[in-house]
Amino acid sequence: MSSNELKIFTGNSNLALANSICDYLQIPLGRAKVKSFSDGETWVEVGENVRGQDVFVIQSTCYPANDNLMELLVLIDALKRSSSDRITAVMPYYGYARQDRKVAPRTPISAKLVADLLVSAGASRIVSMDLHAAQIQGFFNIPFDHLYGSPILINAVKNLKDDDNEIVIVSPDAGGVERARAYAKILNCSLAIIDKRRVQANISQVMNVIGDVSNKIAVIVDDMIDTAGTMTQAVPVLLDQGAKKVYCAATHPVLSGPAVERINQSKLDTVFVTDTIPLQSLAQQSRKIKVCSVANILGEAIRRIHQRDSVSSLFI
After folding, report:
1. Which one of 196, 216, 245, 267 is the catalytic residue?
2. Residue 140: its H or E element
3. N or C, where is the chain less crowded by C-beta within 10 Å?
């Protein structure tokens, strides 16, 4: 791979992940100043020649979502105006993904708006991981590579399984059954479903468990952990149904509001997450939260896109 053909830049959302990806690819991180003026406006200056180059911009649109999204858009615009040949937005976490449809008569579809902004800014291709709603790929008329954090998380979960401990994969709701079934199939274990009723946004009530969790290690799998309400409410229900221990595996550690406190106070054994979103200091201090890096998956996807190889074969 020639380093003068491939360039990687990043904003301020996840510098550690960007550096890990560059380490995997054995190329330096591109030089760019990304900062804010005193009034909050985002300002970018690309510090090296990118004319005719294949450029990748790594930026999760996590908290602060609006600032990180604006950094990504302005970076793309700066690179486009610097005559980059192709600009790929690598968004390990796609913010606004939960606003993928109208839930009331006069509400936006913000996930589609973000898609339009990225294309208008100059993105030629999008790479993201574990979209909350996979159909968001259809909001784009440019190539979209949808990656999965499950290979990394499954390796962590595999270590829980031995001759004395049988695993059951638990979906936290009906919408996550497909994801949980994929985990269960790979791990060759059983599946259970939490039947919950959502009272209002970010507040849910666990009602029942569908499936047998008795004398098994229960692993709740999800695409993200936001306030951790659903997950922590499920723990006592699973334990009451006879589960030996309860773990969780989720790609995106959003961990907003009281999430870390809820995890620390719960009877969860361990929560496995990835580094698509950097942990805040409180989460870093938690002994229950373990981070598994997706840098190699993202790095390999970037290498294959750059070399025009298959990305889907990553998951075969």
Report:
1. 196
2. none
3. C
